[in-house]
């Protein structure tokens, strides 16, 4: 390709002499796939999505879930999503921004949902994750606990668990932990 | 006099390749002394990464007759690099890798000119990358490869028959190692598969379930990940963990040790902690040397044509006996990064709404309910409602105006298409050209984003 390179080198010199540069934003394949996922979102009824940085930043967004049944009905729980440039090779990072009394979500917002970590596959998408998160509120699971105390109560005393969840949502102490009143609660 | 003798003896072996014709040479090979000089004068190689592979690559390329090299790396030298990154000495710890590597090779190989760039690859403009004849990659992450790949492919242009235009092909040579294993590959965008065409070759990263970390740790790695992912946030609310801060790493190590002791699990060490947290696999100097040598030779072959190039993916496995193999992977026909996309010619007066309607009727697309993106800007989104509302006002504007009044560029569309009466969703690359707009000959500025 040396002949080609000679020609190109001449062109380059000419281009440099003329100045002129173009600053172009690169869009990675991951961002394109995310664009597809977002444009096809079909969120379950109690969910809504927000883009805090406007319409052109799809890699950072928030999903709020307002369960309409189960222990957590009446509450509003906000999750932040951070999507990597090699999505869907890597799962998005999801954290719960609302402090919640839940066996599978710890008080720092870490979420134990298999498809976010060990069972993530590139064929899954943002919609699947949101459905997975909704599922956590209808079917909290004491077998994979992140909040050990909540898991124990769920296993041993359903009634107490329900009382604790209500208390956390409407604001107050559960054990040593204070939960502030959930915005959506009325 | 002495200088010229040195020069002569240095290129003696190379001359055997460059001065004589042969049967296994590349298609445009023109042997002769002129070729040797042209390699010095016209070929500019960028080495991405100045670590284990990068040090080897710079040395190999400099000794292979290349004169104009540049190297880019954002890291500084650490003590743990010294066992294999042979250009660095103890006194260099803390200095930028690119700068020290460039200096050392220039001291050792007279006549070679190496320009270092101590920065992130994303910090450079596209123009910077377009200046090189060949890009050689000595990287350790998928993200960085994917980025460079998308940059190199963005220079690629296709003619009206969807054939790649030779002068816009930016060759890449990519190396990678993991312990006793490695790969070397040649990527000719438009001709051989690009990085994105074969991204599935990378195995998924092993991730432990968070609840296992929190409740039932069984291995030393579980204890380390607990300290890194869960305990860190609990204690340092809001402060981000920095894997390059030794204090942070030490904190994780101490916490992991406590937890391992509590559960009676052996094996937490500071080096395992670094390995787990930073996803480090022990690097072996000789594997780096083998892979880099293969990459440097391919670079020489691409530039000079003195032999046919590797076609197109070499795997080297020294872990169980020794096995090496070359596989010819094929391109992904509809690759969003290196594929031609569908060519669409438009009047400048076409509105975004009209354009979306056109995609539905286009015989090659039949794409209904399309959402459109251009260079990272979402021109129109069908869903979710919040984005639809934010982009709706664009529908009545002309596409030409929305794309910044440039004569041609790539846009991406997602929507649904009917195949055998079944609706499937798809994402397509479109090459939009506006009729009757001057300036198409300005190749560099009109180069489409991938």
UniProtKB/TrEMBL annotation, chain A:
SUPFAM superfamilies: UBC-like
Domain of life: Eukaryota
Pathway(s) per entry: Protein modification; protein neddylation
Keyword presence, Transferase: yes
This protein's UniProt keywords: ATP-binding, Nucleotide-binding, Transferase, Ubl conjugation pathway
Gene3D superfamilies listed in its UniProt record: Ubiquitin Conjugating Enzyme
GO molecular function: ATP binding; NEDD8 transferase activity
UniProt KW Nucleotide-binding keyword: yes
Active site positions: 112
SMART domains reported in the protein's UniProt record: UBCc (SM00212)
Pfam families: UQ_con
Domain UBC core intervals: 29-174
Family membership: Belongs to the ubiquitin-conjugating enzyme family.
Known function: Accepts the ubiquitin-like protein NEDD8/RUB1 from the ECR1-AXR1 E1 complex and catalyzes its covalent attachment to other proteins.
Protein name, entry field: UBC core domain-containing protein
Organism: Rubus argutus (Southern blackberry)
UniProtKB/TrEMBL annotation, chain B:
Keyword Transmembrane helix: no
Pathway connected to this protein: Protein modification; protein neddylation
Location of the E2 binding domain: 344-435
Active site: 211
One GO molecular-function entry: NEDD8 activating enzyme activity
Matching Pfam families: E2_bind (PF08825), ThiF (PF00899)
Domain of life of the native organism: Eukaryota
GO cellular component terms given for this protein: cytoplasm; nucleus
EC number: 6.2.1.64
SMART domains reported for this sequence: E2_bind
Biological process per Gene Ontology, one example term: protein neddylation
Catalytic class of the enzyme: ligase
Keywords noted in UniProt: ATP-binding, Ligase, Nucleotide-binding, Ubl conjugation pathway
Similarity annotation: Belongs to the ubiquitin-activating E1 family. UBA3 subfamily.
Entry protein name: NEDD8-activating enzyme E1 catalytic subunit
């Amino acid at each position: 390709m040396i002949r080609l390179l000679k020609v190109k080198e001449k062109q380059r010199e000419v281009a440099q002499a003329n100045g002129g540069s173009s600053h172009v934003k690169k869009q990675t394949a991951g961002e394109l796939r995310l664009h597809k996922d977002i444009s096809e979102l079909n969120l379950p009824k109690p969910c809504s999505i927000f883009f805090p940085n406007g319409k052109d930043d799809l890699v950072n967004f928030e999903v709020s879930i307002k369960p309409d049944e189960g222990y957590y009905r009446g509450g509003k729980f906000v999750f932040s999503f951070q999507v990597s440039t090699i999505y869907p090779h890597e799962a998005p990072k999801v954290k719960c921004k609302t402090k919640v009394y839940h066996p599978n979500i710890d008080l720092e917002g870490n979420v134990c949902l298999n498809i976010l970590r060990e069972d993530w596959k590139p064929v899954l998408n943002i919609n699947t994750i949101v459905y997975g998160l909704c599922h956590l509120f209808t079917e909290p699971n004491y077998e994979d606990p992140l909040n050990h105390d909540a898991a124990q109560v769920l296993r041993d005393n359903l009634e107490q668990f329900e009382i604790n969840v209500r208390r956390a949502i409407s604001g107050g102490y559960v054990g040593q932990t204070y939960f502030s009143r959930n915005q959506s609660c009325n | 006099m002495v200088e010229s003798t040195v020069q002569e003896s240095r290129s003696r072996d190379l001359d055997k390749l460059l001065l004589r014709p042969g049967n296994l040479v590349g298609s445009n090979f023109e042997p002769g002394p002129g070729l040797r000089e042209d390699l010095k004068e016209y070929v500019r190689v960028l080495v991405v990464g100045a670590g284990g592979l990068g040090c080897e690559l710079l040395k190999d390329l400099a000794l292979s007759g290349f004169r104009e090299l540049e190297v880019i790396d954002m890291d500084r030298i650490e003590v743990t690099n010294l066992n294999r990154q042979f250009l660095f000495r103890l006194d260099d710890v803390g200095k930028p890798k690119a700068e020290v590597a460039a200096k050392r090779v220039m001291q050792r190989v007279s006549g070679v000119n190496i320009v270092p760039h101590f920065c992130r690859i994303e910090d450079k403009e596209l123009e910077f990358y377009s200046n090189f004849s060949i890009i050689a990659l000595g990287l350790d992450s998928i993200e960085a490869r994917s980025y460079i790949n998308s940059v190199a492919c963005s220079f690629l242009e296709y003619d009206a028959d969807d054939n790649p235009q030779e002068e816009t092909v930016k060759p890449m040579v990519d190396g990678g190692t993991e312990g006793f294993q490695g790969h070397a590959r040649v990527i000719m965008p438009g001709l051989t598969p690009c990085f994105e065409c074969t991204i599935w070759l990378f195995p998924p990263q092993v991730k432990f379930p968070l609840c296992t970390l929190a409740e039932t740790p069984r291995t030393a790695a579980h204890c380390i990940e607990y300290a890194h992912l869960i305990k860190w946030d609990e204690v340092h609310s809001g402060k981000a963990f920095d894997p390059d801060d030794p204090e942070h790493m030490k904190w994780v190590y101490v916490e992991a040790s406590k937890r391992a002791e509590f559960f009676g699990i052996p094996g937490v060490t500071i080096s395992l902690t670094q390995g787990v947290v930073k996803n480090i696999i022990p690097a072996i100097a000789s594997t780096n040397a083998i892979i880099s040598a293969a990459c440097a030779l391919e670079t020489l072959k691409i530039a000079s044509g003195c032999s046919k190039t590797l076609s197109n993916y070499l795997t080297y496995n020294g872990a169980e006996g020794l096995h090496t193999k070359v596989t010819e992977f094929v391109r992904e026909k509809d690759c969003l990064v290196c594929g031609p996309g569908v060519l669409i010619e438009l009047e400048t007066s076409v509105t975004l709404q009209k354009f979306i309607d056109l995609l539905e009727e286009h015989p090659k697309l039949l794409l209904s309910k399309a959402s459109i993106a251009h260079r990272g800007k979402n021109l129109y989104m069908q869903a979710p409602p919040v984005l639809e509302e934010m982009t709706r006002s664009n529908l009545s504007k002309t596409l030409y105006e929305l794309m910044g009044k440039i004569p041609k560029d790539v846009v991406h569309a997602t929507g649904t298409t009917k195949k055998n009466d079944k609706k499937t969703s798809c994402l397509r690359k479109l090459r939009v050209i506006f009729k009757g707009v001057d300036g198409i000959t300005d190749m560099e500025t009109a180069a489409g984003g991938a």
